[in-house]
Amino acid sequence: MSGASDPSGLDRALVEPTLEEYYDAAPCGYLTLSPDGTIVALNDTLLEWLDASRGDVLGRRFTELLTVGSRIYFETHCSPLLAATGALREIALDLRRPGGEPIPSLVGARTVEAEGAGPVVRVTVFDATLRRRYERQLLAELDTERAARERVEALQRLTLRLGSLQSAQEVESAVVGELIGGQFATAAEIRAVRAGDPANDPAFVRRRGGTFSGVIPLMTHGARRLGTLEVQLPSEPEPEQEAFLLAAAEVAERALDRIARTETAARERNRSDGLPTQQWWNAQLAKELHRAVSQRRHLTVVAIEPQSLEALQQTEGIETADARLIEIVDAWRGLGHDLYAAFGDEEYYAVLPGLTAAQADDLVARALEQCPSGRAFAAGVAQWDRLEDSHTLSERARRAVSDEDSLRRQLGLP
Amino acid sequence: MSAASTNNVHSYGDPSGQPVLFAHGFGCDQGMWRAMAPYFESDYRVLLFDHVGMGGSDLAAYDPDDYATLDGYATDVVAICEDLDLRDVILVGHSVSSMIGALAVRKAPERFARMVMVCPSPRYIDDPATGYVGGFSAADIEDLLDTLSANYLGWSATMAPVIVGNPDRPQLGEDLTERFCQVDPVIAAQFARATFLSDNRADLPHVQVPTLVLQTRDDAIAPEAVGEYVAAHLPDATLSTLDAVGHCPNLAAPEETATAILDWL
């Protein structure tokens, strides 16, 4: 035990402190508590950390040295554990000191028999300021990662779900469900705006005054949007929240586009024969009328009725009748005009932009000449009077077919 | 799964005796009663359980929405009574389970004969509008949540493997002390919110059974004035103050606490 034998060459008797010095100047805090938690002794290091005098602290309860949150945690989790097992390990608690920042600490404790005094609790307190700062940072990063993962998962769920939906209403309720379920918004923050707002910009986030709105399109009807879903938050959104709202708007927009395309396609073509429908014809014709106005051009509609097509189907068979139809279609295509629509079995229409009724009559004559089987169809011509709507115009052309037929019959023409 | 197994119910004592159902508070599990419950075993049927999310309960049964408020826990207490067909129950609730118990008695008054509230508080956060002093501020509760998350490491290092490795949950036994007071921090944080943000003052007048309110000196969580408030607002209450200090007389002074209850019964 002599200093001379120590390899460091130091005299241990001079270097080694007394036990009291060990205790008071230790690089950690020491406390002794009675079993009910009253402080009966503590070292100088802890007093220094607490910025208190021994007289201030002795006789108080250990939990009084803690912040309120740490005190509740100690009372509810640590005291019972200490009573049950006689020890505590690596408990994170914050010490409070008057007028200063709390000291994040790591606390250990052990119940021991003090000679002649019964059981006491020995407590060590380590300053864990830097460690806790690092742990908080790690926890914050974990939180960020978790939030990002949850957002991606929510988005995947939403995308999968929307992919199979058939109506805008279903899209709306799925989006609302995911917004609330994923805690991206509360029910109170979501507002469906049914009318107005043509929402030229399909997926966007905007700030109005102090409130934030994420706008999600909904309720499209064909190409027309009938409303939007607004999410109004009282404050700036969390980054993940904003990212989800933007992405959800895009996903919803895509789903609605798909549904709209399906609906439009269903309306354009007759399900049984695949020919364009009357509804679609009316929409197309309305566009042509607009174009005629803006280009200051005439427009004429021709209604075409293959003659005796039904009789031909019955006597010669459907193939012959079909061949006749193809002749007629080819005749019109040869003139550079597509047939636009078929209503029922025996009515076909063509729109002739830029032509007057007289020019249309010439065209009809040329089409008839191109049909090898001669007099293959009857045609009714109606020039747009620039006031009537597309339906009235089509109707007038259709009536002209019967007028022509009856006139021919009256005149005894073939 | 039955409520009895979901809540890890343990029963002993006189099987034909009047049932005493002990409900632990925020923090640990039914182990909180182990020093005190034996005082009841000769004359009563003793029943202990863990709230879902704590101790040996079925963690898979924990749904954050169901347990966002104390109501979910009260529903479980009633379910245990129905599952085991308990009648004439003496319900002993510690800390927040005093209010969980009050809610359970309101839900199924026909099941309960008496109630004991150990260190109860009907609202922890001060309410300046009514002059009510619960002892805490909203910032204090944030501080608690912060402390809970700072103690995440102890859980993740020691507890997670135990649970992953034993999905069937070992019974309360040798591992009691190892697991005691080790709670999944996410569940603990949620339970902390349900507990410390609760306000059950309006439920007190509806506890239509004789109730013993036990409080301690120097309770950092439920101060004496709060115990007095509880007793004053219950229809039929007896207030008794123990010599024990701290928030857990069931652990710190089991004999004194048990005697106070038995004397009242």
Describe the structure.
The complex is a heterodimer of chains A (414) and B (265). In chain A, strands 2-1-5-4-3 form a five-stranded antiparallel sheet, sandwiched between helices. In chain A, a hairpin with a 3-residue loop joins strand 4 and strand 5. Chain A is 47% helix and 23% strand. Chain A is built from 13 helices and 13 strands. In chain A, helix 6 packs antiparallel against helix 7 and helix 11 packs across helix 12. With 414 residues, chain A is α+β, with helices and mostly antiparallel strands. With 265 residues, chain B is of the alpha/beta class. Chain B has eleven helices and seven strands. In chain B, strands 1-3-2-4-5-6-7 form a seven-stranded mixed sheet, with helices on both faces. In chain B, helix 2 packs across helix 3 and helix 4 runs antiparallel to helix 8. About 8% of the residues of chain B have low confidence. The chains are: A alpha+beta (414), B alpha/beta (265). At the A-B interface, helix 5, strand 3 and helix 6 of A face helix 4 and helix 5 of B.
